[in-house]
Design a protein that fits this description.
68% of the residues lie in helices and 6% in strands. Strands 1-2 form a two-stranded antiparallel ribbon. The chain has a two-stranded antiparallel sheet with strand order 3-4.
Length: 231
């Protein structure tokens, strides 16, 4: 069975975001192929994609390496998110489908319920699904792709503190959905802008130690192909 390059790309990206592959570390095709249980061909394709996304750089005499973003580059990502997410919400108010609204409303109900119960683990996942669905509702594949990449990179560079008031956070989510449902693009834009501005303060740059990285490697789950032999 041939494992598609996009699956290998997702696995490598997830490990980069989790810190399994440390910033600046080499990414050799042979070792990656062995780690993920695939041939070198999809690994090579995946590395090209990850380089285009900014997770990987190619260095002379070293080959592919995990990128080492600067603090300024990390800050730029938050600024980009603050510009693009309100735009996505405004577009969603004009282009969303009933299916999008159904999912968004369901996520808000679940989020508000979990927030009242104080279940922070569920809230983190629900928040990601909410913003992913909101981006998809924009009806712009290019904008959705950019926002998805931003979320991956921000998760890679920042640790995000749990909100002091998760109930308030999900009330803001509900206000965004209400504006989107009414087709009020300006309201959707302004509420989302306020929401992202408040969320910015919860982000802290990651500065993991070598021991922390070693622990992540030891505890990681990485196989992509668990049923078939090497290609």
């Amino acid at each position: 069975m041939r494992i598609p390059a996009h699956s290998v790309c997702t696995a490598i990206r997830d490990d980069i975001v989790a810190g399994v592959h440390a910033r600046g570390s080499r990414l050799t095709e042979e070792l990656l192929a062995g780690r993920y249980g695939v041939s070198r061909v999809p690994v090579r394709e995946a590395l090209r994609t990850l380089e285009a996304e900014g997770f990987v750089v190619t260095r002379r005499h070293a080959g592919a390496c995990v990128a080492e973003p600067t603090e300024q580059e990390a800050g730029d990502l938050l600024e980009m998110r603050m510009l693009l997410e309100p735009l996505g919400a405004a577009r969603a108010a004009q282009r969303r489908t009933e299916a999008h609204l159904k999912v968004l409303r369901g996520l808000v109900r679940l989020g508000q319920e979990r927030a009242r119960r104080g279940n922070s683990d569920d809230l983190r996942s629900l928040d990601g699904w909410f913003h992913e669905t909101l981006a998809q509702a924009s009806g712009s594949p290019a904008l959705t792709s950019m926002l998805t990449q931003l979320r991956h990179k921000i998760a890679w560079m920042y640790a995000v503190e749990a909100p002091a008031s998760p109930v308030e956070t999900w009330t803001e989510h509900g206000a965004i959905v209400d504006a989107v449902a009414r087709g009020d693009g300006e309201r959707a834009r302004s509420v989302t802008a306020l929401h992202t501005e408040r969320a910015k303060g919860a982000h802290r740059l990651r500065f993991g130690s070598a021991q922390e990285r070693a622990d992540r490697v030891r505890n990681s789950q990485h196989p992509v192909n668990t049923a078939s032999p090497r290609l």
